[in-house]
Amino acid sequence: MAELTGAQILIECWKKEGVELVFGYPGATTIDIHHYLMESGLRFVLTRHEQAAVHAAEGYARVTGRPGVALVTSGPGATNAVTGLAAAYLDSIPVIVFSGQVARMMIGNDAFQEVDIVGITRPITKHNYLVRDTESLARTVKEAFYVAASGRPGSILVDLPKDVLAGTAEFRYPGKVRLRAYQPHLEPHPKQVAKAVELMLAAKKPVIYAGGGVAMSRAGKALLTLAERLQIPVTNTLMGLGGFPGTHPLFLGMLGMHGLYQANRAVQECDLLIAVGARFDDRVTGRLDRFAQKAKIIQIDVDPTSIHKRVTTQVPMVADAQQALQAILELLGRSPDYDREARGAWLAAIARWKNEGLLDYRRLGRAASCTGPGCVNHGRGGSFEPIQPQMVVETLYEKAKDRDPYICTEVGQHQMWAAQYYLYDKPRRFLTSGGLGVMGFGLPAAIGAQVARPEALVIDVAGDGSILMNIQELVTIVEEKLPIKVVILNNGCLGMVRQWQQLFYGGRYSGTLLGAGPDFVRLAEAFGARGFRATRPEEVAGVMEKGLAAEGPVVMDFIVCQQALVYPMVAAGKEIGDMLPYAAEILAQD
Amino acid sequence: MDKLNILRRTLSVLVDNEPGVLARVTTLISGRGFNIESLSVAETMDPKVSLITLITSGSPQIIEQIIKQLRKLVNVIKVVDLSDEDYVEKQLVLVKVRAAGPDRAELRSLCEIFKGKILDVSPRTYTMEFTGNEKKIRDILILLDEFGIEEQVSTGLTAMARTRLFKKERRPD
């Protein structure tokens, strides 16, 4: 068999792994790969920053469930990929970054564009590799794809010295990988399944707390069946949204720091908490020693380290979520005998909380938040009621829901409103940076989503702060002809930090007021996209309709009230049942 | 952390003998704020595999996390908590002790009692080698300090279960 160069071998490996496209940015050490990429039949999407390439690969992976691939050069190319690797690692998304590296004999010499990227990314990747010779390249790539996507998925870096890419070897792609030291455990232990079922049948006030692991293991259907069969209400983490239908009567909404009233109350009051693919993150639990104190906990997670990390669980199950739920359903049988009377009372209490917790942002906006002249956006272009940002998300939901869109977000207030006011009925529809909380994630993630689903409606809900963190990607979107719609909730400030300053730091807005900022409509036009703006509440619906209907990339700039706050809110260090802006008397009931 | 409930554990960690694996283990431990009290590494009979003996301390929950997090590393083949087993542990220490006049004879007899060796002799010092478990080494050093220790270096502890190592594998659940 004829020998191939390392660069050719890499591309052949990608094809074997079913890679359709690669996001990235070229440089001196990766020219060999680009040289052969041209006629490989693979699509190369040139982002305008390496960070965006990795986020785009993550967006692609979230939508398709298959690993996303990015290709960056050595040195700054690789360091720019660091944020993306950390983001994918924390959100357990399979992303593989291939980075160029200086030739082997130059490593360690502080060569031009040399960094020890394997050392830098060790704690923020699931695993990483420095490929030491052309012969071991194919096996390493095979292993990288396997490790990235199996067990609890995560990011992988493969560092490729230039001379390894230029060298030649016979191409043999291993059919299977078996690693002595890495064997994810997927089947639930029958004893634990039996214990879980026993607790589920005995529970009077159970709650399911489902995270990103549900979509990851395609366990949505099994989860829905379990919830319906035992009439158990379900709350989702930020990463879990869409894993259970947002419009389902058993759905409680998101829980945690900005969780909905009924979700947080239910978790605090429940006698059984069934965690599925969720890791008891601090933004979920609030004050840990007061979290779900009345509950026994069943925890299903494929990652053993997620169990007993932050809370003690009575029934730990190290398993794939889908397999675990299937086993539970099998043991439960078609019509399990649970305490229907107790369940009726529990669901009635939840219905009461739903009602009690209703927040009218219009009223809140006027009374508690927007004090007229205090809001800089109040007077922009005249004196009128400003748009409340929540209303923009509600309008987006109304206008877009029938088109089964993919919603990406940046990070901050707009992200929380997109989680609270948009109802996700399907998994893999809400793409947000949960663990790392990366501002600048949404726009490149939308690129990945749109490339994966060319026919779909892909929307980035952004703030005027976040959108500027990767605004250069408007070029990529225009050049690649991706009809992405950007909805900017423009409040002239870094809203989430400003919110903390308003509530807990005496209203000293240090470093958070952005001023007028750029004219996003003209900015969009400068990049070759279309721009629309709404400044009054009555314009919102019209602009949203026009923007969503327009062909090609669109930026919609909604000038919103600066003083709108994300509620409910659990202050740092408080238990999650203790939510602003609810009065203490309401919380003390029951 | 629960101060009363701090455990000290000796872990045997079997890893792929590859560049960077020790760095992965130490990065993990420092990055997650765990303690390392002692660490020793060497190749095993299988040249593809190294054994790390690691002594760490923490609450039971922290120890559980350390073991699980180590197991999660792709290059870690197995982690055994030796403290659950019957095991032997040894450490090697080299000590340079002031040795003049009558002290010299006494030091020689101490060395004999503790089954040490005198590696080097100078007009004013002895350089001695001792091996033993942590307690024995501590006792020796207290005694030698009476004479005046000029310099001292020691290896980390290394340990082995009395029964066949890595026979038992514990499932996380």
In short:
The complex is a heterodimer of chains A (590) and B (173). Chain A is of the alpha/beta class.
Instruction: Specify the CATH architecture of the largest domain in chain B.
Output: 2-Layer Sandwich
Give the C-alpha Rg of chain A. 25 Å
* Terminal CA distance of chain A: 76 Å
> What is the domain tally of chain A?
3
**CATH homologous superfamily assignment of the largest domain in chain B:** ACT domain
Q: Indicate the overall shape of chain A.
A: globular
- Tell me the count of domains of chain B: 2
Beta-strand proportion of chain B: 35-45%
Let me know the average pLDDT of chain B. 90
Proportion of residues in helical segments of chain A: 25-40%
Secondary-structure element string of chain B: EHEEHEEHEEHEE
Number of distinct helices of chain B: 4
Give the strand content of chain A. Answer: 15-25%
- The total strand number of chain A stands at 20
CATH topology of the largest domain in chain A: Rossmann fold
Q: How much helical structure, as a percent, in the residues of chain B?
A: 25-40%
What can you tell me about this protein's structure?
The complex is a heterodimer of chains A (590) and B (173). Helix content of chain A is 37%, strand content 16%. Chain A is an alpha/beta fold and 590 residues long. Chain A folds into 3 domains: 3-170, Thiamin diphosphate (ThDP)-binding fold, Pyr/PP domains (Rossmann fold); 190-356, TPP-binding domain (Rossmann fold), CATH 3.40.50; 389-559, Thiamin diphosphate (ThDP)-binding fold, Pyr/PP domains (Rossmann fold, 3-Layer(aba) Sandwich). In chain A, helix 1 (6-16) packs across helix 2, helix 3 packs parallel to helix 5 and helix 12 (261-269) packs antiparallel against helix 15. Chain A is globular. In chain A, 56% of the residues are buried. The mean pLDDT of chain A is 94. Chain B folds into 2 domains: 3-84, Alpha-Beta Plaits (2-Layer Sandwich), CATH 3.30.70.260; 88-158, Alpha-Beta Plaits (2-Layer Sandwich). In chain B, the strands form 2 sheets. In chain B, strands 5, 6, 7, 8 and 9 form a 5-stranded antiparallel β-sheet that branches. A 4-stranded antiparallel β-sheet of chain B has the order 2-3-1-4, with helices on one face. The longest helix of chain B is centred in the middle third of the chain and has 13 residues, at 60-72. Chain B is elongated, with a radius of gyration of 19 Å. The interface between A and B is medium-sized, with 25 and 25 residues.
